[in-house]
Write a structure and sequence with these properties.
37% of the residues lie in helices and 29% in strands. The model has no long low-confidence stretch (mean pLDDT 90).
C-alpha cells in the first residue's frame, strides 16, 4: 500500500504548489514563472480544454517571439489534454529528458533511510558560499554555473526563507550539493539541483545531501518532499522510500533557434 493513502490528494497538493509558483496568465489555466532578467519564462501549470489548446500554445509562442525569451513548458502526466506534449512539438518546442515526480513522507523511517551522520554537510546561508556550489557545477560540466550562482544568490538575498542550499565537503573540498525550496503556506518542500563531483561518486554523498535537506524540511513542519528525478537518481531514491506520483517532461521553445531554421 502507498504511504500516501489518497494519491489524488497528493496530486492536488502538487498542482496547488505549481499554481503558486508564478502568475496566472488567464486562458488555458496557464501559470507563468519568469526570470528576473526576463530572458527566460517557464509555464509551470496549465489545464487547457481540447478546443483551445492549440490557440493557447500559439499565443504563448507569439509572446516568446515578441519578448525574445526562452520558453519552457513543463508538462505533467495528469495535465490536460493528454496529447499536450505532441502538440507542443508540432508547434516547434523541443522535448527534453522526461523525469519522474517522486514524493516522500517525512517520517522517522524516511530520515533513517537518508542519514547524513558521518558526513560534513553544511547549509549555505551566505550568498558568497555559493561559490562552492558553482565549483561542483563546473566540475561536472555545467556551462551555466556562474549564471546559476547569481540567480541563487539573488534568492538567498531577497527571499532567504524560500530556498536552502546544502553542500557536502570532504577534507574541506565541496564535492556534492543540492537545493530545497519552501513555498509559503505549503505542506510540501521540493528538492532540486542535486549534483556530485565525478571524483566523489558512489561514496554516499548524494544520500547524505538528501538527508540534510529532509531534516531541514521536517524541522520546518513540512509533511512531504517532492523531487523531479532523472533516471540516474530515481532508482536510488525509490529504493529508500520515494514513491512515483506522476511523470513530467519539459519542452523548450527558443525563438532565435526557430527563426534561424524558419527564415
Amino acid at each position: 500500500m502507498s504511504q500516501f493513502g489518497n494519491a489524488a490528494d497528493l496530486l492536488a497538493g502538487l498542482d496547488d504548489d505549481r499554481r503558486a509558483d508564478g502568475e496566472a496568465a488567464g486562458r488555458g489555466g496557464v501559470v507563468r514563472e519568469s526570470s528576473a532578467d526576463g530572458a527566460e519564462c517557464r509555464i509551470v501549470y496549465s489545464r487547457c480544454a481540447e478546443e483551445e489548446v492549440d490557440e493557447v500554445i500559439a499565443a504563448e509562442v507569439a509572446l516568446a517571439r515578441s519578448g525574445g525569451y526562452t520558453l519552457e513548458w513543463k508538462t505533467y502526466g495528469h495535465d490536460e489534454p493528454s496529447d499536450l506534449g505532441a502538440r507542443l512539438v508540432a508547434a516547434g518546442f523541443a522535448p527534453e529528458a522526461p523525469e519522474s515526480v517522486l514524493a516522500l513522507r517525512l517520517d522517522d523511517t524516511a530520515l533513517t533511510a537518508f542519514d547524513p551522520t558521518g558526513f560534513d554537510v553544511r547549509r549555505i546561508a551566505d550568498p558568497r558560499g555559493l561559490a562552492d556550489y558553482a565549483a561542483i557545477s563546473r566540475e561536472i560540466g555545467r556551462r551555466n554555473a556562474e549564471e546559476e550562482r547569481e540567480r541563487l544568490a539573488r534568492i538567498l538575498r531577497e527571499t532567504p526563507g524560500a530556498m536552502s542550499v546544502h553542500v557536502a565537503y570532504v577534507d574541506g573540498e565541496p564535492v556534492a550539493a543540492g537545493r530545497v525550496y519552501f513555498k509559503e503556506g505549503s505542506r510540501f518542500a521540493e528538492l532540486a539541483g542535486a549534483r556530485t563531483k565525478t571524483t566523489h561518486r558512489r561514496q554516499g554523498l548524494f544520500i547524505a545531501a538528501v538527508g540534510a535537506r529532509l531534516r531541514e524540511a521536517r524541522d520546518r513542519d513540512r509533511t512531504h518532499v517532492f523531487v523531479d528525478a532523472l533516471p540516474t537518481s530515481e532508482s536510488t531514491l525509490r529504493k529508500r522510500g520515494f514513491e512515483l506520483v506522476t511523470r513530467t517532461q519539459p519542452y523548450i521553445y527558443e525563438p532565435e533557434v526557430r527563426a534561424a531554421s524558419n527564415p
